[in-house]
Amino acid sequence: LALAPTLASATARDAPTRRQMLMVFMMAVFYVAGFVLSFAAVARAGAALNQTIYSTGIVVMAGLSYVVMGKVPSAGQGVGMAVAFAGVAVASSDAIAAAYASLVGGSAGGGDAVAGLLLSVANTLSFNLTGVLIEALSRVPKAKPLSAAFVQLCQVTLGVLAFAIYVSLVTVPRWDELVTKPVAARGNSLF
Hints:
mainly alpha; two-stranded antiparallel sheet; 9 helices
């Protein structure tokens, strides 16, 4: 609904194509999903493991670029990715060792580390797929390029909508438990 005035005001010549709108919608979904997955991953496996997995994003993006657009990295880019990946491995060796120990033990960060690891991988895929789709969007034939502001407006609109739905379904029904009682327990008041 928030985008309706923008789309309605566009002339037929300036209006986004259906393919562009589908790609923008997919980018917005993957972008919002990336944040949700990231929060869920950190809660289950800890921030160190989540960030270590996310730091492999350059390699993940190259792979997704190949799958989505058929874009093959050059030899120099391949060497650069290998160096970056090795750098992440070396810099994150302590986090990787702690994550391995928690995976063997079954928990880290107060939750299920295996689920956290899988959520971290999904988070990395989600954010990097958003980036690949942004590039793919610029390659849509016979279509006027969409502004970055329009794409970001779509992402933020979907994020606000998802947040509003979550608050309506989860927070509001449990308001006393989640908000009023914890505030009162600290000797404060909402008003």
